[in-house]
Every structure is written in C-alpha cells, then in structure tokens.
Design brief:
By secondary structure, the chain is of the alpha+beta class. Among the domains are: about 60 residues, no CATH class; about 110 residues, Band 7 domain (Tetrahydropterin Synthase, Chain A, 2-Layer Sandwich); about 30 residues, no CATH class. Helix content is about 60%, strand content about 20%. The chain is built from eight helices and nine strands. The termini are far apart.
C-alpha cells in the first residue's frame, strides 16, 4: 500500500513538473522566455513549447492590432487659426523584447508614449496647412506623412504604427459661433438676392401677361366689331331684300317693333301729335 502511494505521489509530481515545463503561444500573442530574469528568446511562433521550471519563466503580450483613441487636441494652422482635432491610431507590437524593455509590456504606457509623439508630429503638420486643406482630400496625404514620420519613434518602443486617422476637425466653440453667424448672414443675403430676383421675374411675367391680355382683348374687340359690322351689313341686306318684296308688310312690321319698344313698361307716356306718322296703323284700324 505504501508503495502504491509513493508511485502515485511521484506521478503527481511528474505531472506537475510536466505542466510547469510546457506553455503555448497562440496566434494573438507574442511571448518572451526569461532565464533568471534575462531574456533568452523572443521569436516564438504559435505552437507548444517547453521551459525549465523555476529557472525559466514566460511572459505573453497581446499581438493583435490595438487602438489608441487620443483626446481631442487644439492645433494651430498655417492661417494662425485654432482647430480642435479628434483622431485615433492603430498599432501593434512588432519587437516584443524592445516593447518589454521600453514600456514593460504595458499597453497604457505604450499609449502614453505614442500619444505624445503623435500629437507632436500632428501639430507640426497642421502648422503647414490651412483649414481648407485639412478638410479636403489632403487627409490621406497627411496620414501617410504621419505614419512615415512616426515609424522610427514607434520602432524605438518596439511597436509598429499601422494607421492614423483624423476623425473630425472642428473650430473652437467661440470661433464656431462667429462662423455660424457669418454663415447665417451670408445665407440670408443669398436668400434676399433670390427673393429680389424672383420679385423682378414676377413683375416681368406679370407685365408680359398684362400686355398679352390687352392685345388679346383688343384683337377680340376688333374681331367682334368686324363680326358685328358683317352682321349689321347682312341684316341691312336682309331688311332691304325683305322691304323690296313687300314694302307694306315691312313697314307694318317695323311699326309693330316700334310700338313694342315704346310700350314695354306700365304707365309709359308718349307726347306726340295724334296725326303723326307713328300712329298711322292705329288710324287705319278705326
């Protein structure tokens, strides 16, 4: 029984020693092996490795792409105008041994060191450009310049800068208010200009419409007068032809029309000589 316990104890010890002698490195990690506090290896690729317990120890670091989000910073452009710039940086560990020696493998320390270098380089580049250039396609050019300029300083920290992006370029609040007021005044001026042009066009269209109206009315009156004249001529011709066929009947018909016109209302009074030609047919009826 004692022998079985001894074998079990030895097996457990060997198992513990074996677990302490092995370590793995994943695709998202970089590792450093130390021997009594000194770096002996830092070029591990993903896989399973061995170490000597109590003599070797291993530290692992994140090898993925990391993001540094800088606080908005105030920069001065070549026009001597202040702008507020919001940017972020993508970086990753390149030389893990240097990374460990410079910042102890601490991401926060690396971000602080990188942030200061990035702000210094960005401030220098902004001082050479205007606001208009920063808001145009020159952002891509600025990104390439910053990445190239910061590469040596990033290498000193054992890291690699992959990308620097300017997310937003704003004017300070006190300047923005002034700019907005100027923009508002400019838009109001443009609106007044459009309204005055519209009023001018409206008056021109209205005047042209009135002129066309007068022309149409004049032409209509002319055509109406021509038609009326033609009608009167036709009527006169018809009357003449009718008069020529039966003069007595025509005279009688005309007298009836005159009587009808003279006695349209009640109480109409005509003052004339009873023997006048107007009452000729009244006399003949007696």
């Amino acid at each position: 029984m004692t022998q079985i316990k001894t074998i079990s104890f030895i097996g457990i010890v060997l198992l513990v020693l074996a677990s302490m002698s092995m370590f793995t490195v994943s695709e998202t990690e970089k590792a450093i092996k130390f021997q009594l506090g000194e770096i002996v290896r830092d070029d591990y690729t993903p896989g399973l490795y061995f170490k000597i317990p109590l003599i070797n120890n291993v530290k692992k670091f994140d090898a993925r792409v990391l993001t540094l989000e800088s606080r908005p910073e105030r920069y001065l452009t070549s026009e001597k105008k202040n702008v507020i710039v919001d940017a972020f940086t993508k970086w990753r560990v390149k030389d893990v041994a240097t990374y460990y020696k410079k910042v102890s493998g601490d991401i926060a320390q690396a971000n602080i060191r990188l942030d200061q270098n990035i702000k210094d380089a960005t401030r220098s580049e902004f001082s050479r450009r205007t606001i208009g250039q920063m808001l145009s396609s020159e952002r891509n050019e600025l990104r390439d310049i910053l990445v190239k300029a910061l590469a040596p300083k990033a290498e000193e920290l054992g890291v690699e800068i992959l990308d620097i992006r300017i997310m937003r370029v704003d004017l300070p609040s006190e300047v923005s208010s002034s700019v907005y007021r100027r923009m508002e005044a400019e838009r109001a001026r443009v609106a007044r200009d459009f309204r005055s042009r519209g009023a001018e066009s409206a008056e021109r269209i209205r005047a042209d419409a009135d002129r066309q109206r007068e022309i149409i009315l004049a032409e209509a009156y002319r055509d109406a007068e021509l038609k009326r004249g033609e009608g009167d001529a036709t009527a006169s011709e018809t009357y003449a032809q009718s008069y020529g066929k039966n003069k007595d009947f025509f005279a009688f018909y005309r007298s009836l029309s005159a009587y009808k016109g003279a006695f349209q209302g009640e109480g109409n009074t005509i003052v004339t000589d009873p023997d006048s030609e107007f009452f000729r047919y009244f006399k003949q009826l007696r």
